[in-house]
């Protein structure tokens, strides 16, 4: 029996957002996606969800949205989310990300929305020297991007104190993979993330992958990251909605296991059966040597248990999506045009 709860998903046409939309629909929620489609893809939004094209910077668009629908909860993904870009253009992050979130949070509290889930980031922790990183690790953002997410976490803290709006701040480690059924995946422009870039090389779209530094204090000299399957992230978002009636919370989301850049490349070569050419370059400024999550708290509180914890499965799903959609979501349009002719 559908429970008829309506959830607003900002940025629901993006990578993590679209997987959360799919999970919400599978669990019988009504979903409204609000996305300006600058980075998101219309084709990533299923027919069961209502897509409203708009920008969080526009008070008028938000007023229209909240007068058209009544939301039980909000999942907020829409933001600029590139660490490197934030170091070159902090304003896009410290102003746009924060002001857009403020506009949304104000509309939410004025309209009596009682639950809010924020897509936050491990970049909040900067370069910690102790692993794994749990929720008590000192906050020391590694970039204007991480700082902007921390500022939004603080705004949500006060929205709870003042208005009683409960919030969950979910700090992802390295989101990766694709929907196991192959209909959703990762398609950024420009692409900067390791796994999709490595798969571009496997697919013959790039000549090589550049490793950003081989002189880190790790077993093979390359950076270690904790890759978490995007569907496991989606599962955590939907689980947290159910317990948000009681109190606000913050969770770190990762598998608790790290892989080096070289191990990612080797695994991708095995999964795809292709050679992956590698060149070594200098370190990328701001990259911490190691980031590994402790997700004990979310496992205990929500019973969250990642279904796809191993790197091979994560890369296998990403490769499957890539093979079905060689041009990403643009492949959908090509298929529609061919189908219509
Ligand atoms: N890397 C390369 N070559 C590339 C791209 C990446 O060697 O061409 C390396 C990076 O140096 C890093 C690792 O691969 O060591 C992963 O890099 P990504 O760019 O895929 O991801 P990041 O760890 O830099 O950042 C990700 C998200 C951020 C988030 C952060 C939190 O993209 O939004 O995790 O840990 F803030």
Automatic annotation (TrEMBL):
Pfam name, any one: Epimerase
Family annotation (InterPro entries): Epimerase_deHydtase, NAD(P)-bd_dom_sf, UDP_G4E
Keywords: Carbohydrate metabolism, Isomerase, NAD
UniProt keyword annotation of Magnesium present: no
A GO molecular function held by the record: UDP-glucose 4-epimerase activity
Cofactor: NAD(+)
Keyword NAD among record annotations: yes
EC number(s) recorded for this UniProt protein: 5.1.3.2
SUPFAM superfamilies: NAD(P)-binding Rossmann-fold domains
Catalytic reaction list: UDP-alpha-D-glucose = UDP-alpha-D-galactose
Pathways involved: Carbohydrate metabolism; galactose metabolism
GO biological process: galactose catabolic process via UDP-galactose, Leloir pathway
Ranges of residues in domain NAD-dependent epimerase/dehydratase: 7-254
Family: Belongs to the NAD(P)-dependent epimerase/dehydratase family.
Subunit: Homodimer.
Alphabetized NCBIfam families for the sequence: galE
Protein name: UDP-glucose 4-epimerase
């Amino acid at each position: 029996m559908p429970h008829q709860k309506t959830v607003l998903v900002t940025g629901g046409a993006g990578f993590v957002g679209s997987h959360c939309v799919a999970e919400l629909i599978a669990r019988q929620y009504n979903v409204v996606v609000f996305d300006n489609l600058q980075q998101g893809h219309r084709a990533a939004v299923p027919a069961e969800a209502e897509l409203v094209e708009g920008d969080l910077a526009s008070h008028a668009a938000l007023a229209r949205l909240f007068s058209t629908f009544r939301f039980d909860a909000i999942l907020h993904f829409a933001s600029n989310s590139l660490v490197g870009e934030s170091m070159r253009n902090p304003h896009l992050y410290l102003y746009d990300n924060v002001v857009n979130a403020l506009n949304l949070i104000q509309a939410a509290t004025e309209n009596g929305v009682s639950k809010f889930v924020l897509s936050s980031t491990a970049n909040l922790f900067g370069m910690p020297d102790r692993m794994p990183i749990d929720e008590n690790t000192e906050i020391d953002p590694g970039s204007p991007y991480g700082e902007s997410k921390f500022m939004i976490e603080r705004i949500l803290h006060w929205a709870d104190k003042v208005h009683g709006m409960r919030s969950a701040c979910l700090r992802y480690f390295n989101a990766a993979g694709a929907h196991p059924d192959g209909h959703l995946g990762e398609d950024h422009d420009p692409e900067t993330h390791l796994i999709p870039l490595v798969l571009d090389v496997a697919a013959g779209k790039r000549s090589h992958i550049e490793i950003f530094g081989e002189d880190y204090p790790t077993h093979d000299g390359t950076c270690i990251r904790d890759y978490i399957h995007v569907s496991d992230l989606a599962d955590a978002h939907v689980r947290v909605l159910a317990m948000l009636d009681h109190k606000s919370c913050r969770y770190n989301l990762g598998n608790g296991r790290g892989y080096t850049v070289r191990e990612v490349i080797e695994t991708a070569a095995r999964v795809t059966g292709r050679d992956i050419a590698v060149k070594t370059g200098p370190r990328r400024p701001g990259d911490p040597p190691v980031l590994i999550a402790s997700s004990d708290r979310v496992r205990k509180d929500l019973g969250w248990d990642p279904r796809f914890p191993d790197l091979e499965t994560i890369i296998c799903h990403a490769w499957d999506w890539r093979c079905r959609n060689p041009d990403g979501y643009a492949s959908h349009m090509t298929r529609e045009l061919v189908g219509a002719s």
